């Protein structure tokens, strides 16, 4: 199905099932422990072996020699797989560093060997016996030091401009110019990277934890040098990803190589300390923002420059992209520069680009509002735009940032806010409130599905779409149920298998909208097949409801169309040029109240509100869960999350959950989410857009702005830890 014109009235608009607060159909499986995750697949008749990864102890250099005899002689050891054994492996399309290093070391903890043994404990013990002689080389590990040597990235659109920023900024009555920094941050999902690999002749089956099945399948085949058609990937349940499982990772490659060497299935899980240095992370940024405005508060000039770093061949953190679209202003400039660093690979982490970019931009907007003497909410509203500011001929498909801000201000009690910082105190607590806009682009990718109707009236949906805890199973079931007029209980959903049609996958908050649109396309084709099978002229005037097919006075049971063999339809959604003619984005507003202890500088979140405008909400329960999880993640980004770089040795020091601090339930007592009632017919037949990452973008800045309102202390370097506050707080008395 080609989606190249705005959606009109269709079966989804009935909203009998779609849009309803249906509890997750996979919930009982997960709460009872029946959902099987990658490392848990187990056949009692299969003699599994276990692999333990040996990671590089240096960040840059080469291996002079590796001594594995002691490991091979250790109890239970089956094999030690090194680059000498497997040869020089290729690199997948989506990988920056090699997942199994050879002689050259590209980053700390790069996998250089895997020890395979009868038990996990034996493999772990033997891995400590592998001795490696290195030739260490000097590396670059400090973004600030490498900033002046950063270059314009070759890919994408690193720079943009409209009007004459320099002249407009120079002549602006009110000017603002500040620099902000965000640190390296780590994914810290519950399920680590884990895989099981098994060979059957020259065919490979891998149970793994992957957000994007087809990307993994393609890159795994490329890496180990076999035909893609001989690779079978399965990933039906995933314990979180946040972007780190978008791309093929070392556990899958090492499991495949180890299984081939050991001649039996092998399980490989990356220990938690490996996740920070061996996989990917959100790279640090340095961001300079300049804003010029008239006395009336209208922005006349805005510029956003950002610097980030990555390994050679890597990409820039696109932290300026929201600034190109969020606020009006005729004279504009954005630029991104990439420094070469020898730290582990920087790549996608929940809302790449907008998440760190909004951390800076939305503080700058508050600071500019203060200079103008304007309320921060009103300043944002004054500078709203309904067109792409860089391309005014290109309107937004649907944009209600103003509605989010006004609704949030009313619900949160913004009118009661103390305008003067450090003016509200409750005992030892300085109390303040902050706001930030939320923004995330709406991305679309092709997505396919197969739908089968059997003689019992059961509808089965098959797609390689994944569920990383987001509710994919449920919204896909709701889509099929709505399209075919059956209850959700009559829909069986099978996900995460490379034998199924290729979907959009889970990432970039495009998964929900695109995967359900693909199911919509397959169901539309099945509706047509049902019409033909039952002798109706067309499916256009048919009503599918209550397990029946109706046209005028004629009605027939849906299951009669199945026949003895069942009725199957397969299709995919392919998006046309609507994303080119109209800018598709999602919008929101975050409001936060904090308390800061006047004696210690400790910050406590008191309450949070998110108002989101993101098209049709397919399931308010699962959508709310996504937003409150994102809000929590935003608090972590604001107050605690930072990968500390050892700038001499080139690794992240706090590479485990004991030292990498993330918020928990007790840290955030009250969260509220409001979804504005809207649809976007230009996004897809579902008229939905993404929601999960919107809930993160802007949260950290809202926290920072609330801290300033509470204390009068402006911190521009994240995370806002107490040491950055305590010396600037008022006397306790």
What report would you give on this structure?
Helix content is 24%, strand content 27%. The termini are far apart. The model has no long low-confidence stretch (mean pLDDT 97). The chain has 3 domains: 49-138 and 192-238 and 245-278, Aldehyde oxidase/xanthine dehydrogenase, molybdopterin binding domain (Aldehyde Oxidoreductase, domain 4, 2-Layer Sandwich), CATH 3.30.365; 285-443 and 581-724, Aldehyde Oxidoreductase, domain 4; 445-574, 2-Layer Sandwich (Aldehyde Oxidoreductase, domain 4). The chain is an alpha+beta fold and 733 residues long. A 7-stranded mixed beta sheet has the order 4-6-2-14-11-12-13. The protein has a 5-stranded mixed beta sheet with strand order 1-29-23-24-25, with helices on one face. It has a 5-stranded mixed beta sheet with strand order 8-18-17-16-9, with helices on both faces. Keywords: Oxidoreductase. This is Putative xanthine dehydrogenase YagR molybdenum-binding subunit YagR. GO terms for molecular function: iron ion binding; xanthine dehydrogenase activity. Residues 32-138 form the Aldehyde oxidase/xanthine dehydrogenase a/b hammerhead domain.
């Amino acid at each position: 199905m080609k989606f190249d014109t705005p959606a009109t009235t269709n079966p989804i608009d009935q909203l009998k099932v779609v849009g309803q607060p249906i509890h997750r159909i996979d919930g009982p499986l997960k709460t009872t422990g029946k959902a099987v995750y990658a490392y848990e697949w187990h056949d009692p008749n299969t003699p599994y072996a276990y692999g333990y990864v040996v990671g590089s102890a240096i960040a840059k250099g080469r291996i002079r020699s590796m001594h594995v005899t002691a490991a091979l002689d250790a109890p239970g050891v089956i094999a030690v797989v090194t680059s000498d054994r497997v040869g020089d492996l290729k690199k997948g399309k989506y990988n920056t560093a090699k997942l199994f290093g050879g002689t050259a070391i590209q980053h700390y903890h790069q996998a250089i060997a895997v020890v395979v043994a009868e038990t996990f404990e034996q493999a772990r013990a033997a891995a400590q016996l592998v001795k490696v002689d290195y030739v260490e080389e000097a590396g670059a590990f400090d973004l600030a030091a490498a900033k002046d040597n950063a270059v314009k990235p070759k890919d994408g659109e690193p720079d943009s401009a409209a009007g004459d920023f320099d002249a407009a900024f120079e002549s602006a009555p009110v000017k603002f110019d500040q620099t902000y920094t965000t640190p390296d941050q780590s994914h810290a999902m519950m399920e680590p990277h884990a895989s099981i690999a098994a060979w059957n002749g020259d065919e490979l089956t891998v149970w793994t934890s992957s957000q994007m099945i087809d990307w993994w399948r393609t890159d795994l085949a490329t890496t180990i040098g076999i035909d893609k058609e001989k690779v079978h990937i399965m990933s039906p349940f995933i314990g979180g990803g946040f972007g780190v499982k978008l791309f093929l990772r070392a556990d899958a490659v090492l499991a495949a190589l180890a299984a081939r060497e050991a001649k039996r299935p092998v399980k490989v899980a990356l220990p938690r300390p490996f996740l920070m240095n061996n996989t990917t992370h959100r790279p640090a940024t340095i961001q300079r923002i300049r804003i010029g405005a008239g006395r009336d508060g209208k922005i006349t000039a805005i510029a956003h420059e950002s610097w980030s770093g990555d390994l050679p061949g890597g990409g820039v953190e696109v932290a300026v992209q929201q600034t190109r679209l969020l606020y009006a202003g005729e004279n504009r400039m954005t630029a991104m520069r990439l420094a070469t660093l020898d730290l582990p690979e920087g790549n996608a982490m929940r809302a790449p680009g907008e998440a760190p970019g909004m951390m800076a931009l939305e503080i700058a907007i508050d600071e500019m509002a203060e200079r103008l003497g304007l309320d921060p909410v009103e300043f944002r509203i004054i500078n709203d735009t309904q067109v792409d500011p860089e391309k005014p001929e290109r309107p937004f498909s649907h944009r209600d940032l103003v509605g989010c801000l006004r609704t949030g201000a009313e619900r949160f009690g913004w009118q009661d806010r103390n305008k003067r910082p450090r003016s509200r105190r409750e005992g030892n607590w300085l109390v303040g409130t902050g706001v930030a806009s939320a923004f995330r682009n709406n991305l679309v990718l092709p997505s396919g599905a197969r739908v089968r109707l059997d003689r019992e009236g059961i509808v089965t949906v098959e797609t390689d779409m994944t569920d990383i805890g987001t509710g994919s199973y449920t919204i896909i079931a709701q889509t099929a149920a709505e399209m075919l007029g059956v209850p959700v209980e009559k829909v069986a959903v099978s996900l995460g298998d490379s034998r199924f049609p290729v979907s959009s996958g889970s990432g970039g908050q495009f998964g929900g909208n695109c995967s359900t649109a693909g199911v919509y396309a397959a169901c539309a084709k099945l509706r047509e097949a049902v019409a033909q099978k039952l002798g109706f002229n067309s499916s256009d005037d048919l009503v599918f409801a209550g397990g029946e097919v109706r046209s005028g006075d004629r009605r027939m049971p849906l299951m009669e169309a199945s026949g003895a063999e069942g009725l199957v339809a397969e299709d995919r959604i392919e998006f046309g040029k609507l994303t080119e003619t109209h800018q598709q984005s999602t919008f929101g507003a975050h409001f936060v109240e904090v308390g800061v202890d006047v004696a210690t500088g400790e910050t406590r979140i008191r309450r949070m509100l998110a108002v989101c405008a993101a098209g049709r909400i397919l399931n308010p329960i699962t959508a709310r869960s996504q937003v409150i999880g994102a809000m929590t993640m935003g608090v972590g980004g604001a107050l605690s999350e930072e990968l500390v770089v050892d700038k001499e040795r080139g690794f992240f020091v706090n590479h485990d959950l004991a030292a990498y601090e993330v918020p928990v339930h007790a840290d955030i007592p009250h969260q509220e989410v409001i979804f504005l009632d809207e649809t976007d017919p230009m996004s897809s037949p579902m008229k939905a857009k993404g929601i999960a990452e919107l809930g993160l973008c802007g949260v950290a800045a809202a926290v920072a702005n609330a801290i300033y309102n509470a204390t009068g202390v402006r911190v521009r370097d994240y995370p806002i830890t107490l040491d950055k506050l305590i010396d600037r707080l008022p006397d306790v008395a």
